[in-house]
Write a structure and sequence with these properties.
By secondary structure, the protein is α+β, with helices and mostly antiparallel strands. The protein is built from 9 helices and 11 strands. The relative contact order is 0.07.
Length: about 450
């Protein structure tokens, strides 16, 4: 069953044109055929008038050079082989069988009392009429494909605005819920577009409510979690039995993971809150160096070689805290999945009109089942590691998109993952740098 409106319109209109064309062709053919027969009867009448007034020549065999259209026979009725049958016919037009062939005959009585006949074979007449009728139908037959082509073009152009509207929707970012414009669209689509706009407004309202709830809940929980973490760390200075020490360690780790989750939720809510004004120009290489310096002790504990493979001093447009969050979350993800003794290489370089941040690790990479959903919030994949929240990559994507860049994750040919962030080179009119975060 065809669900395409364009396809259904084209097929329906084509079927209507073909049916109407066939009916019109049949009617035109029949009408032209009858007109041709009437025209030939008129010719017989004219020839009969001339023959009746001027006399009839002696019968002579028809020349083989005559065309079928010229095969008109003029005879005296008394000289005809079938005169006995013809004598009984009144003057006028008749259809008579002669020599096993149907003829159209005109019988006339001359002033001297003799009678003449003017005749033509029915087959010749029908052939003439058929050819004449076909010539009248041929333009219609040629016109039908042209009409179908015109209908196809007109339908596609009429529905092009719908295709353009769908293309604009497909090209939008996932968080772009701005209403669709009515300008330049057919009035028939306005109710449909208005319904979509109302739906987008309701979705935007629900998303804003959800973001506010997450931000408020994370903010409210942050204080008691921080207090619980401090108390647990203070309790670690007290003499405890081995079993109590083990439970206290689990409590401290759980509090830290919860605090980290709350920080990520707050960051996600903060970066989701609308479009920020134009950000300052920041040194990406300096942000990356500071984040790497903070994570070096953690990498050293597991024997992971963390360092820069390619390093260029480059500027990008963005808040230092946002850029630091991008680098930190990507490196945190790499550290969690890279096995002990592994390697993490960082590159900061320029590629045409983009500044590239590239991070490669020697971990297991991303399974094909997780590749499409890895940037969704709280998606930890089929191979989760301890301490992950499933929010880091989602935050990276939010920030990069706000900075009008892109982020791509791809598995390396042997083993490992490559994360590539492309950010636009800032316009040259802004030369001042934003201060780095302490």
């Amino acid at each position: 069953m065809m669900h395409s409106l364009q396809g259904r319109l084209i097929i329906s209109l084509t079927a209507m044109i073909v049916v109407a064309g066939v009916i019109a062709g049949i009617v035109a053919f029949r009408w032209a055929f009858d007109e041709a027969i009437e025209l030939q009867d008129s010719i017989l009448l004219q020839v009969g008038t001339i023959a009746g007034d001027a006399g009839v020549p002696e019968p002579a065999p028809a020349s083989g050079k005559l065309e079928p259209e010229a095969q008109v026979v003029i005879e005296r009725l008394g000289d005809a082989a079938d005169k006995d049958v013809l004598q009984a016919l009144p003057d006028g037009l008749h259809i008579v069988s002669r020599s096993h062939e149907a003829w159209r005959l005109l019988i006339r009585t001359r002033p001297d009392g003799s009678r003449v006949l003017i005749g033509q074979p029915i087959s010749v007449r029908d052939n003439i009429a058929r050819n004449s009728a076909l010539h009248s139908v041929i333009p219609l037959i040629v016109l039908l494909p042209c009409l179908v082509l015109v209908v196809t073009v007109v339908v596609r152009r009429a529905l092009r605005s719908m295709a353009q509207l769908a293309a604009r929707l497909d090209a939008r970012q996932a968080d772009d819920l701005q209403t669709l414009p009515l300008d330049g669209t057919p009035s028939e689509l306005h109710p449909f577009i208005a319904s979509i706009n109302h739906l987008l407004e309701r979705v935007q309202t629900l998303i804003d409510q959800q973001r506010r709830f997450i931000a408020d809940a994370a903010h409210e929980l942050r204080t008691p979690i921080t207090a619980m973490s401090l108390q647990a760390e203070n309790l670690g200075q007290v003499e405890l039995p081995p079993d109590g020490r083990s439970r206290l360690s689990a409590l401290i780790n759980g509090a830290r993971r919860t605090a980290h989750l709350l920080d990520q939720l707050l960051a996600l809510a903060r970066y989701d809150m609308g479009r920020a004004p134009e950000a300052p120009v920041t040194s990406l290489d300096e942000c990356a160096k500071k984040v790497v310096a903070d994570l070096l002790p953690r990498a050293a504990e597991r024997g992971i070689d963390l360092g820069f493979e390619l390093f260029e001093p480059l500027l990008v447009r963005g808040e230092p805290a946002m850029l630091a969050s991008v680098v930190h979350n990507l490196l945190d993800n790499a550290l969690r999945h890279t096995p002990e003794g592994g390697r993490i290489d960082i590159g900061v370089y320029r590629d045409g009109e983009h500044v590239v941040l590239q991070i490669e690790d020697t971990g297991p990479g991303i399974s094909p089942a997780d590749h499409k959903r890895v940037f969704e919030p709280f998606v930890r994949g089929t191979q989760p590691v301890e301490g992950g929240t499933g929010l880091g990559l989602s935050i990276v994507k939010r920030i990069v998109e706000r900075l009008k860049g892109s982020v791509v994750l791809e598995n390396l040919p042997t083993s490992g993952l490559r994360a590539t962030v492309n950010l636009p080179v800032p316009t040259p009119q802004v030369a001042s740098r934003a201060p780095l975060i302490p």
